Structures are given as structure tokens and as C-alpha cells.
Records
---
Amino acid sequence: MNTHPYLRAYMAGITVPTMIFLPLALTGFSIARFGAGLQVPNERVIVFPMAVVPNLFGVWNILYVAVFHRRNVPIGPFGAILPFLLLPLGTLLATALGFLTHEARGIVWFGAVHIPYVAVATFFCVAIAIYYLVWKYLVGGLNGILGIA
Amino acid sequence: MNEWSDDQIQKALKAAFPPAAASESRRDLWPRMLRRMNAPAARVHWLDWAVAAVAVLLCLVLPGAASLLFYFL
């Protein structure tokens, strides 16, 4: 009997970004636009968290179940690698869509929020930590419930 | 055309299909199920709590840069 483990892995992977991250991001950017008065182009900004991140989570979990789980690779560090893929992808898309510009000392977000490169590097480390925890406890927990890892 | 009786069909079918294997499991699965139901919930390691605390603290200290997380998460 085919139990479709890769379909279940994909579904377990997309659950967390779709149900937790996306509403958080949409709420945050809406508050920035309508509350703080920043010129946030929500319809362009939301493309990456809505379309790219969940699918990448799903594909990453399929890869884990198909290859790395069998080799006893822990899921937390495996998930923590994902920001190394997401950062260049997201930066590229944000620059192409025109709401992220680069300066000598840092980046400018929505033409208004200046973030120095030190802060970007700091938050990259925070993202790695968050991804580690999310993959270890949430995606790993869902994999356990679905009986795939 | 040769007409078959019900008995003949029954015998032919029995001869064609091998007898089904024992449908019951050889071992009792209920104790395993009970163990799983009574297993304690996964505990979060103290180091993971510390990592989460540092992440939250940094978001509070640098809220502007925290908007990056909304985008990349």
C-alpha cells in the first residue's frame, strides 16, 4: 500500500509557515502600512512569505524525509540551513520588486527604514535560531504525528 | 455452451484463489498503543528556551530590523 510519505512530508512542511508565519507577516506589514503610515506595498511584499517560503518548507521537508532522516540527521540543524537559501532568494526578490535598496552602510526597507548591515547580520543569526526551534519542535512534531519521521 | 452450477463455480473459485492468510496480527498491539498514549510530552531543552529568549529580546531591542523576520519567515 502506498502511504504517500512525500505528500505527507510536504503537507507537514507547509503547515507552519502557512498557519503561523504568514498571518504574522501579513499582520505586521498591515500595521506598518495602516498604523505606522509606512509606504509598504503589501501586495508585492507578501509574495515571498506567501508563495516561496511555504513551498520551500514543504520541499525541504520532503528532502529531509527522503534522504536525511534515514541517515539520522537531526531535523533542527537541517531546518536551520534553510535561511541560507531564503536570504539570497528573498533579497533578490525584494530588490527586484523595488522595496529594498542597498546602501554603503546598510539596507533601506520600503524607502524609509534604514537597517545597518550589523543588524541584518544579527537578525540572520536570529532567523537561524528561530528556524532551528521551529523545525525541531513544530515541523518535527508534525512529522511524528503523521508517522513519517 | 456449457452451463455451470453454483457448486461448480464455488469449487472453481476456491481452487483458483489461495486461502487467505491469518488476518490477526501475531503480536498484541494494544500495549504498544498504551505506551504511546501514556508517553510524556516532549520536553523543551533549557538551551532551546535560552535561544528563544535571546531571539525575542533582540526583536524587542531592534524593532525596525525585526521587520526583516516578518519577510523572511
---
Amino acid sequence: MTSLATLRAAIDEQGRRLAAAGRPRVQLMEICGTHTVAISRGGLRDLLPDGLRLVSGPGCPVCVTASGYLDRAMHLAARADVVIATYGDMVRVPGRSGSLEQARSAGAAVEVVYAAHEAVALARRTPGKQVVFLAIGFETTAPATALALQQARREGVDNFSILGAHKRVVPAMKALLGLPDVPIDGFLCPGHVSVIIGWRAYRPIAAAFGRPCVVAGFDDVQILAGIGEILRQLADAAPAACSVYPAVAADGNVRARQAIDEVFDVTDATWRALGCIGASGLDLKGEYADFDAVRRFDLPAMVDYDPPGCRCGDVICGRCLPADCELFGRSCTPRRPVGPCMVSSEGSCAAYFKYHWRPRPKASP
Amino acid sequence: MCLAIPAKIEAIEGDTATVGLGGTRARVVVSLTPQVKCGDWVLVHAGYAITVLDEADAQETFAILRQMDALEGP
Amino acid sequence: MSGDDTILLAHGGGGQLTAELIEGVILPALGDAGGQEPACLADAAVLDPGAWCGGAAARLAMTTDTYVVQPLEFPGGDIGTLAVCGTVNDLAVAGATPRAMSMGLVLEEGLEISLLRRVLESAGRVAVEAGVRVVTGDTKVVERGALNGVMINTAAVGEVSPRADLGFGRIGAGDAVVLSGPLGEHGLAVMCRRKGLGLAGHLASDCAAIHGLTADLIEALGSDVHFMRDPTRGGLAATLVEIAAATGRDIQVRQQAIPVAPAALAAAEMLGLDLLTIANEGKLVAVVSAEAAENAVAILARHAIARRAVVIGQAGATADVPIVEMLTAAGGRRVVQMPYGEDLPRIC
């Protein structure tokens, strides 16, 4: 088992090689919100060489979902005949008319579920109500939604529907590399999305854009090993797609991808801050269209809204760090969040705040 | 993007299985890992097993398993 | 359903059924911890603090608490043991010996009397072990649906040791922060039971009375013990942040030093929770002078519930805006914040 000391030494060594080759500054993007949390919680940034900067990417499904989605969820929650079933992450995100948590406290039916199939079970238990499942997440959770829909269809659970916002990671990575003002030298790729899509899915990025794409797991050893491998590839000028996370196979989980293909079509999708990205979303196929809450209910048009001063969009693109946002730690805190990055458990701002924020002294000189 | 943990399959009942980790048990859906057997380690995410793990890899990769090994049992 | 099985509204009416409940269920269940016969049906209990302190004048500590835990019974305890231990522990960390407590019960119509009996028997057992008497009480019944089964309110008093000199103001730079044992067992045991996650007998609430620990510390170390608290709601994180805020001092702790039980760690991982923020009901945080730290650990470790007592950090200098900082296992640093308050299940 490689020790942390060995991995740190390896990172320092590659950093020195890069500096000697005229690249003293390297900026890497960790795409996955869970990586941001793990890096912050482990205090790992303190262990990295000075020239190495880590920025977060669009890896928090709640954060990259356009604000209009939450407004639609709130609209549904306000209906007496609807029960919203949602993962815990969405409950506190502030929309224009408050959060689902606030709606619940005002009497709306909002149930937190751990798993997509729980939402179907809820629908079965409450035949008089319409259960709408907030189906967000990347390729990790999409298979679960797919299985839940297959089950609902098979068992005739007609009072179940989804408000879908599943997204695909690789197209977003390409879109990020198209941003002129965000330098990204390499990607630390998400561990569990990769379990589903396989590490080979990143080959086009490594090949066409020359960026190392290394999949890592979520503990200290995994993350440092992943960073070390990215730096080595940069120093050797040999960018590739690979994995240091044994759980990830080259082609991922074929059965899971099959489930996604059976239920969803790949479509264009709108991401917060990144706009419309081709082939980056998952919409229900024709035979599952009845389970689409957008068709079943009369929903307002998706109107995007970013609170004044909120830089969540910049944070998820890696354009700035949380502390660069004027609102961070001032008017935007976990207690009173302005944007999703501060309230989602995978949000960068929430992670930076929880693990690193030091309040400014009250008296100014 | 995902909180996923390793767990050991203790019993399989059709599409679901009982898995355990450190004395805690949960029920998970195994439809995405149809090849799974009792005694296998799987990676569990949001109520679903998303892949089967090699036990040695699982021990090496997951801090929680290393810590459980290192500490005495309760 | 006969009135013998479940609680009826009339049980709270103050009449015949109330008396039957008290004499037939509540007092027998509390056993030696409760009073006997008409004395404890009186409106008030008369206490003689002089008897507690051998005639010397003493400071009294008083505490109150209300218990609404769900589910009512969980591995390692129930609302009864929790009500007694939680209350006793609040007195203990004030340097007091718990002597007498009140118990107000609010029962939901339809509550199974056998369950009520079980939780009160638990409470009685723990109270006897802790040397505290339930000297007065009250019983009300509310209609079905108004609350979940049982709510217990307690108040308790005890005399403060003359050797105790505790308070935020006594904490100084270099003081050692001592933790009596592994984190998170209570909160996780309750949450696992609530969420229906099965248990193999490894994860149980640590619910226990800690005044044996606090009394020994004060007895041996006296004013070298500067501050004590039991890290309940909000866990160790809340306790440390409160200390930092109240003292104006930075606090540093080391992750490697903090004991955790493998089962608790596993459950926390499964639920996506931070062990630092999870409630403990049988643990002690003590801030003692640096010179007394080693002794403090040794004194605690003699007790079965504190075998893994350890110094986890120290109080630092005063700061304009004090923070609690943890040295991580990897050797980096992170801040410890006050937790939000509701633990949400995470997925991604």
C-alpha cells in the first residue's frame, strides 16, 4: 500500500520536472463535487506544491442544473395532489420562491429518498397522489432512474413521474476546454461516474485535447495518486485516459449503460453557466414519455435566474474559486445560501466554507 | 459525484441483496450487477450496487476498510 | 382495545385512571429510583441539600431537558435511559453529583402501556446506578397524532463539588482537550434504526451516565479541570466551536487522535455523515491544564466507558475571530464549523 509520504514525494518530483521544463504553474480541474469535498476535508491542498492549483468543475449535479428546474419543482410542490420525492441534496437549494425545505415547512409534501426505487414505492403507497421524482445526477444515478422507470412501467404505477435533469459528463468536459479564459492542464475524473462509463470514455479528451484524464477514488491516497499520475503524464508529455481506482473498468458497467439506453435518449441540455451543450442530457424515450412530469403537468417555462452577485456559474466552470465571489462568507453562507454551490453537499462553496473558511475580524483597522 | 461505499453481499433475494459493512446492513438493488454472488464485495451508490469489487482491491482502496482492519473489533 | 393495553386520554385526567397509571405502571417501573406511596403523589418533593453535603453550605446545580427521540427504543437504549443519562450528565459536567430529578411525561393516546413500562424500567435501572432519585413527576396525555408516543421532560438538582471551579473563563492557552471515547455511536444507532438499516449488534448507542468520570476528575485534579461538556446534539464539532466562541481562543485538534468505532465509521460512510457532528450520549469532553492532561487520561481510562480516553488537542491563543482547526490524517488542515442542524441523506 503506497503511503501518503511516497505519493507526496512523487507529486513534488513531478512538480520539479515540470518547473524545470518551463511549466512552473499547473492548473488541474477536479470535476466531481465529491472530490472537492474530499480534498477540502483531508486538507490535501496544503500538501501540494505551490505552483499547482486545483479548481472545481461542474461536478455537482444540483449546481449545474439550471435554476428554472428548481422553480418547476417548487411549482409542483405547491400542488396539493403532488408529493415531491427527492434526494437530500435538493432540499435546501434556494429558488426564486424559496427552497423545498421551506415549502415542506409550509405544508407541501416533500419526501427525501435515498434511492430512486423508494420513489416508486412511495407512489405505490400513496395512490391518491402524484409522486414526482426529481431525477438529477450524472451517469452514476441515471441507471437507477432508468430501472425505477422500467419497474413503474412494468407494474403499472401510473401516479409516478420524473422531472428529469440527468446530464453526461464528457460533453461538459469538452465544453469547458472551449472556454478561452479557463486554463485546464488536466482532469481528475469522477470516480463513480467512471464506474458506469469506464475510463476509456475519456480517451477522446486526452487524444483530441492533449489533457491527462485520470480517474481516482475518494480517499487521500487515491486523490494524491491521481494527481501524481496527471503530473507525471504532463511531465512526460504523454497525456492519456487511465484510472488509479481499481473499481473502474475500461468500459465501465455495460449493464448500467444498457439500462440508460433502454429508457433515455441523448439530447442537448442546458447547463448553468455553460449554456446549451450538445449531447449532454438524457431525455425520456418515446415509450416512457408518459412518465415525464413536463408532459403530465402544466409547468412554467424554464427561466434562468442568477441572484445578483452570485458567481456559482463561474465556480462550476473553474473560472474562480469560491473565495473570489464577493458574496462568499458574507451574504452567502450555508445558513443563508444565495446559490446552489453553497448549499449542495457537493457544492464547491459549501466545501470551501465548511472546511476552510476563516471569518474576517469584525473590527477593521 | 457520488457517495459510494464498499459493502459485502450477505444474501441475495431476486433483484435485491442484503449487504453489510462493519456491522451495519442495508438492502440494495443488484440489477446493475446481475453476476453478483454471496460473499462478493460491491460498490453501493444511492441504494444500488454499481460494480463488483475485487476484495483485495477493495481493501487497498477504501480507507474505511483499512481503518476497520487496524482498529480492534468492538 | 381495553384500557389495560394502551394509554387513553383519561389516563391524563388526574382522576382514577391517572392514579392507576402512576401506582400500577409508572412507580413500579421506576422501582428503587422512584419514591414510594403517597409521598410521591404530593405536588412537590421536599429536598434536604444539607444531607447531601454533610451540613456544609454548597452550590447547587440545576438542569432541565426534554427528550423527543425517535424511535423510542434503539440499540443500546431507549427514551427512558436517555432521559436519565442526559439529565445526569448535564449536572455531572457542571461538577455536580446528581441527587434528585423530576420526570414529566407527555403520552400519546394509544401508546402501548407495555412500551411505557419498558422505557420507565430502563430509566429506573439507570437512575439507581447513577444514584439519582425520581422524586416528583407529572403525567399528561394528548390525543393520538399530537406527538410520537412519548415525550419526557426532566429537571434535576445536585450539589456542586467544592473542588470544582469550572467555566469558559478558566480555559487558558495550552490547556489540553480530552475526549473520553469514540464518537458518533448514539446518533448513528438511532439513525440506523430510524432508516431501517439493519444492525449486527455492533452499533449501539453509547448512552451512559458520566458522573463517575467527572467526579473522579474533580476529586483528583480539582481546579486543574477547567471546563467540561458532554458532546450531545451537534457532536464534538458543536462543543469545540462553542468553546472557541465563548473563550475567544483558537482550538486545535488532531484527527489521528480522535477515536472512532469501526461500526460507527461504517454507518457514517453509508449515510454520508460527518462523525464530528453526530450526537454522543455517554462521552465527556474535558479541558484541563496541560500539566494535568496525562493524569486526566489515566483517571478516565480506569472506567469501562472511557477506556479510549485521549488528548485530542489543545486550546490556543486568543484571536479576533477564533476558529477550531483540525490537523487532518494526511497532514493538512481543515476548519471545524458549527453543524447546520439536520442531517440529510446524501447521494451525490
